[in-house]
Automatic annotation (TrEMBL):
Protein family according to the UniProt entry: Belongs to the DadA oxidoreductase family.
Record-listed E.C. numbers: 1.4.99.1
Protein name: D-amino acid dehydrogenase small subunit
Alphabetized Pfam families for the sequence: DAO
Highest rank taxon of the organism: Bacteria
Biological process (GO), any one: D-alanine catabolic process
UniProt key word Transcription: no
Species the sequence originates in: Collimonas arenae
UniProt-listed InterPro entries: FAD-dep_OxRdtase, FAD/NAD-bd_sf
Amino acid sequence: MEVIIVGAGVIGVATAHFLQQQGCQVRIVDRRPAPGMECSYANGGFYSAGLSAPWSAPGAIRMAVVSQFDKSAAFKWRPDFTWRQITWMMQSLKECRPDRFSINRARLTRMAKYALECLRHIESALPIDYQRSVNGVLQIYREPVPQAMIDGHLRYLETMGIAANFLSRAQVFTLEPALARSTPHLFAGLHVHDDLSGDCQVFTAKLAEAVAARGGVFDWNTTVKQIHVDQSGAARAKIRSIVSQDREFKADAYVFAAGADTPMLLKGLADIPVYPIKGYSVTAPIATEERAPRHSLFDFATKTGMARLGDRMRISGIAEVAGYGTTPDAARSDQLLAAFEGAFPGAIGLQGATSWAGLRPATPDGVPLVSRTACENLYVNTGHGGSGWSMSCGSGKLMADIVTGRPTDIDATDYALLSPLRR
């Protein structure tokens, strides 16, 4: 079976890897000159099941309103009054009810947990060094946490099979001594034991090398311009070929893993409810080891991720519903640096810091689309929001099983385009 994958980010490359494992010939088409150059390039770095949760959550409506009056708000909606943005926002707001949030969070957690298992399978077969940190992820709280919230969250994680424990202030400082020097206003922490962090772009590039070594073909600097569809009396339309700026490609099946661009590429063929959420990161070298965290952390108060990537720190956060622009706002990058410096002053070399912004492809319910479409040989693997790295290997394996018609390890209905769980 020959499969063309559009998009060479971590989702597309992971899909190619697992398709090869099932005997498929793969060709990956991407408009960039190398793998992982867009949303996979400098994302937060967390590969986390324990912290996976949809953005459409109780309280998000209030946050969206407040953000209009606070330039430093972690979430920002910049209305452009396009029909596409308005309808996506309205659909997202419907998913903020507690009952919908609970359903969607469980779907996300199941995929992220499965993705950790799939990542371990890849690591056991391929010696990939991607600056991995495997001592868990620590979420810190700067305000008192109600006991009912602690108990409820731990029960949820236990139900999902995720090992975690709540830590007192003193226990947090024992686990992460660098915090004790500079963060007096800290009350508690949640340590998720099996979560990890690593450089997504490095992983993507090295996995792409393995795919190429097994015969996978990569067509770089190649933009899909047209999709030719055969509707010759068949019950379902079928893709005949895709056309780039200079050539035509044919295959038995086509997987679109093009992130936030997927809806535009498939316009008229499939209605893909994905909209870009702009996120930021700053990557900086560690300057003073004893001042730097040993763990990757998430600051619940500032909604800032701090991922340890070998001898570097990746500081990430902010969610802007603001269209398709990717130019970093210097004030936003400074905001992330200030959050990190407040917790770990002097730990990183600011002179060597680099800023980045990318577009997270988000669905209204926060759950990815790993699915067949109404078009017979067309599949989509997109909509992972801020958890694309965390769910990449699981999404790739699930997509490969769906394309080849194999039984899936997890319930594919959770991630189907036309799932009854999507309202």
